[in-house]
User: What shape does this take?
Amino acid sequence: MRTKRRGTLLTGLLTALALALTAPATGTASAADEPGTLAKPAFLAPFECDSVWTYSTYPDHGNVLDFVKAEGASAGAPVLASAAGTATRHNQPDGGGQYIRITHADGWTTEYMHLATYEVADGAQVAQGTVIGTVGSTGNTTGPHLHYEQELNGVHQDIELEGDVLSPYPSEYGEKFITSTNGCDGDPGDPDPPALKDTALAYDGPATVFNGSPAPLSAKLTEKEGGAPVADREVTLTLGTDQTCKAKTDAAGKAACTIAAVAQPLTDSATVPLKATFAGDEAYKPSEATAELKLQYVTGRAYGLSATVPVLVLPIVIAPTPDTGEVRTADAKTVAPACTQNISAVVLTADALCANVTRTTGPSTSTAKSTLTKLSLGLPGLPVIEATGITATSTSTCTASTGTTDLKLTIAGAPVTVPDIPDHAIDLGAGARIVVNEQTRTATGLTVNALHISGLGGADVVVASSTSAAHNCT
Assistant: This one.
């Protein structure tokens, strides 16, 4: 009996040992525990609770789906995270447009393309049901829809939503539908995304800019409620459409940067749009500010001679010759028409008449200059007036306008000493007179006429006229 009992016990021990060796060890994964199966997130439709969408794909589109709303417009509809994860912003203008990629656990990712807007900051932690954007048509698309993808370790997977695998996919909208339960419990889960604070951005840089010169731009970023400064955030300042600089805000919330050399077109209004932008981040909502800056510019005109002489037989009328016309520019520029070699009109002759207007930068300057080598004028009943080496110059900047006249004057064959002062008048008798170095100032500039001769009957002769002005100086 003892021998038999020992044999029974030994047989039992051997059987238990065999079972122990063949059973899975505690903590060792079985095939059912592979990450590709049990670790897959429970993806829900990326739309608001109870909304109905229809989906499709098209040949060669890949293992992806395009969604449109079954009823009503798709554009602007909220797009929800189909599972929790980390959201990052992306932009592909010639492809997916504005899109968000959410990185989930165990190698899973989802992508949401052609968004009209982003509704979460780049890098934000989002819960299932969080609104991450709105449906749009950015990128390469023919209309508003949501392009949706699911990937495992970078490889597209058959899309599964609301517990159902949606493949095989239809090729036309309206063949298959899905109703979202995303967010239907009213609780998107934990962790809740932090509430973003509203911000306010205000431009506080100069009101005027100058082509060819640096433009120091600045803006201040604050919390919208309470006005506390927002520090260490990047602000982009754009002058016009194509000149941009960026800077981070300091402790006072101010971001300052400089456009090295302004190069903007001169419009009819002589203004340049300015835009300051803060893109937002994980703590603050985006904001922007706009302003219209003045573009400093100059004007000018120069001509050699103009005359109206009421001679009884044949009145003489000479339009300004040569004439630059009105010059208006914000760039370095010179306007110089061809010189006129000679004018001869009964009582008047003039030789080698020239005129030009030049705008230079640093500082912005307008210089108008007109010259004649010789003038002879014999009005009826008046002594002959002759002048040589005639030059009239007018120069204007934003700080001052100055003018000069150089000439040698002879009346009735006798030299006349002309003092170096503006508006020197000489009485010729019979109601006629000469004004030498005639200067007329305006709020923005100065006109200089070397000689202005007037007489009875409406005779009016202007010799070497130059006008300059500077605008938008403050």
The first strand starts at residue 52 and ends at 56. The radius of gyration is 42 Å. Helices lie at 2-22, 35-38. The chain has two helices and 35 strands.
